[in-house]
Amino acid sequence: MRRSLAVLFAGLALPVLAAPFTLLPVSHPAVAAVERYEVSAPALAYRGADAAAFDGNLPLAVGSGLSFKGHEKGSAALEFWAVTDRGPNADSPEVLNGGKRYASKLFPLPDFVPTVVQLRVSLAEAAKVGRMLPLREAGRAISGRPLPQGAVGASGEIGLDEKLQSLPYDPLGLDPEGIAADRQGNLWLVDEYGPFIVRVDAASGEIRQRYAPGSGLPAILAARQPNRGFEGVTVTPSGKVVAIVQSTLDVDGRTRHGARFSRIVELDPASGAVRQFGYPVPAHFSKAGDMKLGDIVALSDSRFAVIEQGKDQDKRMHNDITLIDLADATALGGKTLADGRALEYGDDTMLAAAGIRLARRTLALDLRALGWTAEKAEGLALVENNQLALINDNDFGISSKVQGSTAKLSQLQVAAGRLQDPAGLRQDGARIAITPSREATELWLITLQKPLHALP
């Protein structure tokens, strides 16, 4: 079995190295070593209004999902599959259109194509993006722009360009957030729009099959919160595709903060059979909707490791690895509360009365205790039984802010491509600018003292 170089070095007093590789100091009883790699990736040419702030390039963000591909032939290097999300986008004000308000996102590169990449990690040296597979469907490259209003999976958002003009919708738009590979050579991606599960040809990047709520997937999944659809995916040893919804469903717009669980979906590609299970919301979240799940990785057909994150009731950020077991969990398909309402309306007592057992959850690892600082831990992979790989999403290194006005972004609106305040007064001197966040994409290799399934 190949071993991390950090394990070989663990007993030595090594100096802290500069990026792109750093061997981090470790004082955690469950952890033997932590290797940090800053991921090197091609830049995206950007010639927009704020290009000078970025030296004409935006960083490529490849940390929305991660899957271990294997060891490179003839070397000790590790290879991973990774994926971008829908592309560079930033917060922007609500849009007034036809007397209604719509959430919006600003897309500085509106034609960006969500892309699968291969990462190569040369141990104790560097992590680099290699082969790139832009996603295609129905004979054309897709984009990450929102789906048309009313379409299955539409988020209700309006995409805006930098001049605050509405962008065309993309009926094939996809916002990938997880990636896994099966033994037949297929890649499985999940997204936040639909939420969709898609099967992708690993040689061409062509989407061969798309599962959607009401079309291969349970219709109730359409109640996902906007931008909180599927966030992680894995393939079990028996070939089942298991996806996890980032947060609680918002059934009828009423359950996001009260639901006691988020949904886990198991798809059997061979038969099309689907089962659902519940991931319990831990007590430290004051509102259930504050919990955000990241990636999921199979340890067996019923046991999984999951990234769980979000701010707790004391506003402290959590980035945790949990272990869940579905062996005794209740399959949720077709079940409701005693009064016929969706299970998301039920408290713990009502769920128990309905015979619902959620997944058994235990905390395995507090990433913040290891020095993790990124808000979005979004990719998780199992390299060896006692070694994890973790990657963050840096949102293409951008954020947004208001220039030329003292108003906050949330206090402004867009009407006919112009900014105005809630009273309808135009803010002609104001604009929404994108600014560098300076956050890098980091891949961590975490070597444990014992196999992950044996924690905590």
UniProtKB/TrEMBL annotation:
InterPro entries: Phytase-like_dom, WD40/YVTN_repeat-like_dom_sf. Keywords: Signal. It comes from Vogesella fluminis. Residues 1-18 form the signal peptide. Pfam families: Phytase-like. This is Phytase-like domain-containing protein. Residues 78-396 form the Phytase-like domain.
